[in-house]
Amino acid sequence: MADANIRAARPLSPHLQIFRPIITMMMSIFHRITGAALYFGMALFAIWLVAAASGADAFDTVNGLLGSILGQIVLFGFTWALIHHMLGGLRHFVWDCGHGFALKTANAMAWATLIGSISLTVVIWIVGYLVK
């Protein structure tokens, strides 16, 4: 009979401190974070819609808060989260179709998601300020 007190010589489960961060891992983490951020961003959007339906005073109050520097930063982050999550979803859709699993392709798509989300966010905000 085997001795139950002898510990098996097997490796411990790896921790995040052991792994070297790679782009696909970081995009997976960002996808989850942006999903959570969208939850709160949509709450802000709902508050804005309720204020618009409630009357001019409530709408002016919410617009004043969202128009402040802090409000603009929050809205910029919400815009980035929305676009990043959308592009990440498209990346996952490509994978669901059975494509893009090669390491080089997966890394390129991850970088494209990051660069594309930042670029599109900046373009949307520039256009928003020019149209204003």
TrEMBL record:
Coiled-coil stretches noted in the UniProt entry, renumbered to this chain: none
Domain of life: Bacteria
Gene Ontology CC, one term: membrane
Primary location class: membrane
Cofactor note: The heme is bound between the two transmembrane subunits.
Keyword annotations: Heme, Iron, Membrane, Metal-binding, Transmembrane, Transmembrane helix
Binding, heme: H85
Transmembrane segments: 29-53, 65-87, 108-131
Membrane topology: Multi-pass membrane protein
Cofactor annotation: heme
Cellular compartments annotated: Membrane
PROSITE patterns, per database record: SDH_CYT_1 (PS01000), SDH_CYT_2 (PS01001)
Gene Ontology molecular functions: electron transfer activity; metal ion binding
GO biological process: tricarboxylic acid cycle
Family assignment from sequence similarity: Belongs to the cytochrome b560 family.
Binding partners and assembly: Part of an enzyme complex containing four subunits: a flavoprotein, an iron-sulfur protein, plus two membrane-anchoring proteins, SdhC and SdhD. The complex can form homotrimers.
Biological role: Membrane-anchoring subunit of succinate dehydrogenase (SDH).
Protein name in UniProt: Succinate dehydrogenase cytochrome b556 subunit
Originating species: Tepidamorphus gemmatus
